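Researcher: I'd like a candidate sequence for this fold, 189 residues long. If you have to choose between options at a position, lean toward the conservative one.
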């Protein structure tokens, strides 16, 4: 690392906004093309660039003056790209699994079971209090993390966790009632 770059890294570690601006100017385009090389769309690449610099700023105290700042910046970008890929893969896998799980078969009983379960799910979802439902939908339907939901809704991550936990309890109770109903109807015949 040359001396000017070392000084720039040291200034950034101490919270110097001008040093941050200089690094942004120097690395913005490099990171953008780095993202495109990984196959990201332009909009996604821009988002990763922004996230990279936000993370650089929030983790500036972890910059090691004896190591390459450039490597540090690109490692942040690479980790964000990998996290985004993991999230997409997880969402796709969950979506495929849910579709297979909920897809009715040709069997009349299975179709009725599917309809009952789907109806119970919809009723329970609609009965959730507004904020709890919103948090649950952001988590389960949009795949957002607790931190992302917290940021978007302006509530603490702990509150997000509580809302999801309570929503899951509501769903569990609804399914238990449905199972109880099914069992009683089976044993009454």
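Model: Candidate sequence:
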């Amino acid at each position: 690392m040359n001396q000017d770059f070392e000084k720039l890294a040291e200034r950034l570690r101490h919270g110097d906004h001008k040093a941050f601006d200089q690094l942004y100017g120097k690395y913005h385009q490099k990171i953008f093309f780095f993202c495109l090389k990984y196959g990201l769309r332009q909009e996604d690449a821009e988002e990763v660039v922004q996230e990279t610099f936000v993370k650089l700023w929030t983790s500036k105290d972890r910059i090691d003056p004896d190591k390459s700042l450039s490597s540090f910046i690109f490692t942040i970008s690479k980790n964000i790209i990998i996290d985004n890929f993991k999230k997409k893969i997880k969402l796709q896998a969950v979506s495929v699994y849910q579709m297979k799980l909920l897809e009715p078969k040709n069997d009349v009983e299975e179709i009725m079971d599917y309809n009952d379960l789907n109806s119970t799910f919809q009723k329970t979802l609609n009965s959730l209090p507004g904020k709890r439902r919103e948090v649950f939908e952001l988590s389960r339907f949009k795949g957002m993390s607790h931190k992302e939901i917290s940021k978007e809704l302006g509530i603490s991550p702990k509150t997000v966790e509580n809302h999801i936990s309570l929503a899951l309890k509501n769903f569990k109770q609804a399914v238990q009632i449905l199972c109880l109903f099914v069992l009683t109807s089976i044993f009454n015949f």
